[in-house]
Amino acid sequence: MTTPIRFVMIGGFLGAGKTTLISQLARRFQADGKHVCIVTNDQAAGLVDTQLLKSQGLEVNEVAGSCFCCNFNGLTAAMDEFEQRQRPDVILAEPVGSCTDLVATIAMPMMERLGGKFEHSPYAVVLKPGHGQRILSGSGRGGFSPKAEYIFRKQLEESDVILLNRIDELSSEQVTELESLIEAEYPGRKLICLSAKTGENLELLYRTLQESAVPRALTMDVDYDIYADGEAELGWLNATATVSSPEPIPLDDFVVKLVDDLRQRLEQVQAEPGHLKILCSSTGDVSVANLVSSQSKTMLSMSSEASARELELIINARVRLDPAELKSFVVATLDSVVESYSATYTVKQLESFRPGRPVPTYRTVAT
To answer: Is the dihedral of CA 316, 320, 326, 330 positive or negative?
Structure first.
């Protein structure tokens, strides 16, 4: 009898650190001799996370153009394609950060339609501390409206396990406060405090994901009108571009400067970033910088320490801002930063839009 493929879905809001955690988990499964594949997801093509994971030698398929729940068949096709090469032991799936209701629209339909092919791990949701503290304490919504906050809360509500990430950036007092807030609002949830960056408590999560998801007696109630409005508040931008320079450009400095310039432009109009991530690459060297909130600093999340005259850029921005205005800010940033290096650039692809209303392919209701 063929052993079921372990299906691990890691949810969480934009900028929570899902991709870094999935990379760490992939390595941990591989250390146990497992063949691991990853499915990423985005509302448009050109995802930084996909290229970042591939650059680390991981096997990745991307479902682009809609979220997993609205393209269930795209998700299953991406997983089937892995099997044509080598049957995976483990599939790690990273849904869009603005999505919720994934147990009812992904996990349960998979169990119904694909039977014993998959063994489902408990559904884990990554919590970003900055937004978590402001939203759960009632001290502020972190620049987002009540409708976007609704999505954030629903993600936590449907979880089997809540992952308090980035504890390496927090004091022990801050961790204790967040633990208390989570327990008060979501009693009974398993809570794991970890750092995807340093690997702290990764082993505890790994052991937890060896367990099987407990069947749900009830599915979560979701108001799809509020959900749709919350998603539509975010301007969504994916772009790819090439940069040419007469002199070598340090990839790390260049990508940090791009993110920091855009961060300052967003601050001027008080536009809250859900997540801003830019990947800069050249002949195998990769640098990534990102910004996860208005109250955080630009971070170089992957350093290459390389320089090159020809660069490839992938830009992903999810910001509470009109898409046309977001596009103008990104173009102005490229103009300014590229000119500062006496370089030129060409945009290969650029999409800027608001996500459409979520319409799940399937939705299982357990009562």
So the answer is: negative
pLDDT in the model for residue 150: 96
As a whole number, mean pLDDT of residues 179-190 equals 95
Per-residue pLDDT tens over the stretch 134-170: 899 887 655 678 999 999 999 999 999 999 999 999 9
Q: Assign residue 166 a region: left if phi > 0, alpha if psi is -120 to 50, beta otherwise?
A: left
| Six-digit token string for 54 | 């591939």
**E strand or H helix at 183:** helix 172-185
Tokens at residue 186, please? 């979501």
Q: Would you list the DSSP string of 237-288?
A: EEEEEEEEEEEEEEHHHHHHHHHHHHHHHHHHTTPPEEEEEEEEEETTEEEE
* Cα separation, 254 vs 256, whole angstroms: 6
Query: What is the arrangement of strands in the sheet containing 307-319, beginning at the earlier edge strand?
Result: 299-302, 285-291, 273-282, 307-319, 235-250, 344-353
Could you tell me if 199 and 188 are in contact, meaning their C-beta atoms sit under 8 angstroms apart?
no
How do residues 285-300 score in pLDDT, each as one tens digit? 999 999 998 888 999 9
Instruction: Work out the average pLDDT over 192-202.
Output: 97
Q: What is the pLDDT of residues 226-267, one digit of tens each?
A: 999 999 999 999 999 999 999 999 999 999 999 999 999 999
Rounded distance between C-alpha atoms, residue 98 and residue 349, angstroms: 23
CA distances from 75 to 88, 149, 178, 238, 284 (A): 15, 27, 34, 20, 28
Distance in angstroms (rounded) separating the CA atoms of residues 221 and 121: 22
Q: Which amino acid belongs to residue 298?
A: T
For the ranges 19-23, 127-131, 297-301, the lowest mean pLDDT is seen at 127-131
**How far is the C-alpha of 288 from the C-alpha of 366, rounded, in Å?**
42
Do 11 and 123 contact (CB within 8 A), yes or no?
yes
Residue with tokens 């800027």: 352
User: Residue 161 has what DSSP assignment?
Assistant: E
Cα dist. 115→75, 109, 289 in Å? 16, 10, 41
